[in-house]
Amino acid sequence: MVPLGRRLAVYDLSLEHDPRAAQAFVQLAGQTVQLGGAALHLWDAAHRDGHGAEDLARQWGLTDADVDAGRSELRALGAVSELTDTVDGRRTWAGAHTLHPLVLGLGEVADQPAAHHVGLPGRPVVQTTRAVRDVWAWGPLFGDLWTSVGWHAAGYAADGLPDPRAVDPDLLLADVVAVLPALLQTTAAYVDLALPAAGAA
Questions:
Q1: Looking at the chain, which terminus has fewer C-beta neighbours within 10 angstroms, N or C?
Q2: What pLDDT, in 10s, does the model give residues 187-200?
Q3: Does residue 185 share a domain with residue 143?
């Protein structure tokens, strides 16, 4: 389960800390979407653990009925997507979504030129490869993540980069997907829906 959209407002848990009373606003596909109660908590849990989001939401006080209702609301709003971690599954998912950075690229890790940090000055939050860093950093320039990955892989191949995982779009996408949980958990990125193709109805 991959949460979609960017949180715009801090949700309110003041009403006796009842998770069903929480409210928030999320930017999704250029629109502002309101999430409340169980849907909001499940959406937030998916940022922390996409595989175990429902179990985490239950630990926060949601009942099974709450989780079911929250899942239905998120799907109806298009605020979550399912990612199957196979070659075809990753391609399909990447073609329907975009990746957007929310922090800064901090450059190479000291004494590890193949590794790069992202985060805030003095506070790196995620370490990744140069190729994944580039896909993350330039994501908003592309209509979808699969196009971005293909463009970067072709560029690395043309430059003769000696990294088989950077020049093969499927391997590069697999690396992006592998680091995605860390990017979401640390609020270093968010995922949104792909942009319509130019000229599409």
A1: C
A2: 999 999 998 754 44
A3: yes
